[in-house]
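Review session, final week

We close the course with one last complete record, chosen because it touches almost every idea we covered. It is dCMP deaminase, a protein from Polypedilum vanderplanki with 196 residues. Go through it on your own first, then we will talk.
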Amino acid sequence: MQLFAYCFTIITNAVVTTVKCQTQARKNYLKWEECFMKIALIAAERSKDPKTQVGACIVDDDHRILGVGYNGFPKTEHKDNDGGIYSWNSDEKHDYVCHAERNAIAHSNGNLKGATMYVTLHPCNECAKEIIQKEFKRVIYIDEKDSPFIKLEAAKKMFRHSKLGEAVQYHKLIADKYGVNFKTSLMTKVAFSIAK
């Protein structure tokens, strides 16, 4: 049973109305990890890649967002590049696509030393190099994707031998809480609803 206290009384047109206020905090609020991973998931929805949508959110120890990014082609002189200049064909796109991690770093305010990155897929070997060089403290991810282009094991090896060490961890909070099967849904479309 929740406890209520009478916080204040409103007097309107000679009618007295008593308003009840809860004295206890809401229990099902978002934890910081969930909040920032949701932001990464929302950023992933900005990707125009028809096969893989990835999002990243960078935060500092005070829970301030330092950068957000998603995977997509580099900026062009065209206002909205829908793949007309570059091709989303799997064989060609890897030469041109900017990964979510790199876009988040590029759109950050600069100093990322000690920051945490929330990303929907484990960083590839190229992004891992940049994360290590920027001296991130932690990387939290939802899923892994290994391919000839990603080189996941190389990324994991670099993380193990850096200051990040084993701090790179599998993030299951969102998957468990919302029952999303990221193995099938994340690769095709981010199956995440804010309404949940």
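Two points worth writing down before the exam:
Residues 45 and 190 are 6 Å apart (CA to CA).
Residues 28-185 form a domain with the Cytidine Deaminase; domain 2 fold (CATH 3.40.140.10).
Good luck, everyone.
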